[in-house]
Amino acid sequence: MDHLFLDTDVILDLITDRQPFAEYAAAIFMLAEAGKLATYSSPLTYSNAYYILSKSASHKKIIDQFNKLEIIIKTLSMPPGVVRSSIHSGYHDFEDALQNYTAESHPQITIILTRNIRDFKYSKLAVMSPETYLKGRKTDE
Questions:
Q1: Which one of 5, 43, 49, 103 has the lowest number of neighbouring Cβ atoms within 10 Å?
Q2: 29, 12 in Cβ contact below 8 A?
Q3: Is residue 91 within 8 Å of 100, Cβ to Cβ?
Q4: Quick check: pTM over 0.85?
Q5: Is the peptide bond prior to 79 cis by the omega test (within 30 degrees of 0)?
Q6: CA 75 to CA 52: how far, in whole Å?
Q7: H or E segment at 128?
Q8: H or E stretch including 13?
Q9: 110 and 125 in contact (C-beta within 8 Å)?
Q10: How far apart are CA 110 and CA 3, in angstroms?
Q11: Residues 25, 20: Cα–Cα separation, whole Å
């Protein structure tokens, strides 16, 4: 079973039905619901998504969506050292560095799913879009 870290954009694609990306995000979540893969994210993901969504949706609507997601996505802790690693990294986007080092600190995670692949060029993990992941995934799992 693959263990995937979901970047904020994947979650936003699903919640906002951002086309054409929403169909791939939805497929990832359907596989996770069926127990065919495990999905993870960080508290930072929820914070960033809330900030973006709050510009166009009510608190209640956002929290209702998060409640649904929280059943499928395991929220990881951000261990000590993640901030320091991020500060001293070559990442130009601090948030991406935090996400990467959070994912890297959990050995079960092997893939980061994001649409901003170039932003994770320093990652030790495989980094791919949901679309690429789904196209390369073995269908017999």
A1: 43
A2: no
A3: yes
A4: yes
A5: no
A6: 19
A7: strand 126-128
A8: helix 8-16
A9: yes
A10: 6
A11: 10
Helix H or strand E encompassing 39: strand 37-41
Predicted local confidence at residue 139, as pLDDT? 62
The answer to whether 40 touches 3, Cβ cutoff 8 Å, is: yes
| Rounded Cα gap, residues 20 and 129, in angstroms | 12
Distance CA 99, CA 8 (A): 9
Per DSSP, the residues of 96-119 read: HHHHHHHHHTSTT--EEE-S-GGG
Cα–Cα distance measured from residue 46 to residue 134, given in angstroms and rounded to the nearest whole number:
24
Predicted local distance difference test score (pLDDT) of residue 28: 97
Which residues 6+ apart lie within 8 Å of 76 measured at CB?
A: 5, 40, 41, 42, 102, 103, 106
User: What are the percentages of helix, strand and coil residues in the chain, rounded to 5?
Assistant: 50, 15, 35
CA distance 76 to 20: 28
As given in the structure block, the two tokens for residue 27 are: 């497929």
Going along the chain from its start, the domains and CATH numbers come out as 2-136 (3.40.50.1010)
